Amino acid sequence: QVQLVESGGGSVQDGGSLRLSCVASGYTAFSTYMAWFRQAPGKEREGVAAIVGRVGRDSTSYADSVKGRYTISRDNAKNTLYLQMNSLKPEDTAMYYCAADRIAYDLLPHYRYWGQGTQVTVSS
Q1: Residue 114 burial (CB < 10 Å; 0-12/13-18/19+)?
Q2: CA distances from 43 to 38, 61, 94 (A)
Q3: Nearest Cα to 13, choosing from 69, 93, 82?
Q4: Could you count the other beta carbons within 10 Å of the beta carbon of residue 91?
C-alpha cells in the first residue's frame, strides 16, 4: 500500500504561483510512476503532469494546457512529488490530486494510488 498526502493548495490571483507537494509513505516501491491530476466541478479528471524517476534523469510529460507554466519534479530521498505552477489562470481552478503506481500510465487516470486532493483557486 502507498499513502499519498497533498498540500500547498490555496487561493491566488490571476498570474500568481503555487507549489504543490505530495508526500508518499508505505511501500513506496509502488510509486515509481507518479503524476498530478486535476478535476474541476462538472468536468472529468485531467492529467496535467507525469514523471518517471530514472537514475540520473527524470522523464516528464505535460498536458498542452499547462506546458511552459507547470513543472513536475520529485525528491526521492524525501519521497515527495512537487508541482510548481506559475502564471496561473482562472481556468486552472480545480482540486489537484497526486497519483502513483508501478505501471507507467503517464497522463491517463488509471493509477492505483491517489491522494485526497488539495484545492487550487485562481481568481481574476
Answers
A1: middle
A2: 9, 21, 10
A3: 93
A4: 11
pLDDT more than 90, % of the chain: 81
User: Phi and psi at residue 14, in whole multiples of 5°?
Assistant: -50, 130
Tell me the per-residue pLDDT of 70-89, one tens digit each, with 9 for 90 and over.
999 998 889 999 999 999 99
Handedness of CA 104, 110, 116, 119 (dihedral sign): positive
Which grid cell is 10? Answer: 490555496
Residue 91 has pLDDT above 90, yes or no: yes
> Counting beta carbons within 10 angstroms of the beta carbon of residue 94, is it exposed (0 to 12), middle (13 to 18) or buried (19 or more)?
buried
C-alpha cell at 2: 502507498
Over residues 14-38, the mean pLDDT reads 90
- pLDDT reported for residue 53: 65
Radius of gyration of the chain (CA): 13
Q: How far apart are CA 33 and CA 54, in angstroms?
A: 10
